[in-house]
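Table 4 source record.
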Amino acid sequence: MLLTPLFAVFFTVFYVLLSLNVIKNRFANNISLGSKKGSEENRQMEVAIRSHANFIEYVPLALILFYFIEMLSMSSHAVFYLGCSLFVGRVMHFLGMNNPKKMMILRKLGMVITLLVLLISSVLLALRYIPFSV
């Protein structure tokens, strides 16, 4: 059984929650576009927008890499561990963004995990194409 579609479901649900967070903040702060109301900065709105945007900047690429790993029959186990790690990393990043004074470390660790997942996935795929000779 392929695992990438299952992770796509989890990430889609999380993405919808992030989207709803942006919408909720827009209604609560009466902000139609951007993160400012007039000339006044709205930190809560900016955090919601950036959490949402940061997610969509990284997750689709990871899912594509997961799909390639599975299609090349490299390892469903690798996809499982990479997918779980990415999900934990994205949740940590979100929590750190929303509580910067208390949990900034979560934001940093979330990004480190996200980037490591992308790098490890890329290396796994690259190794598939590098000819080895003994």
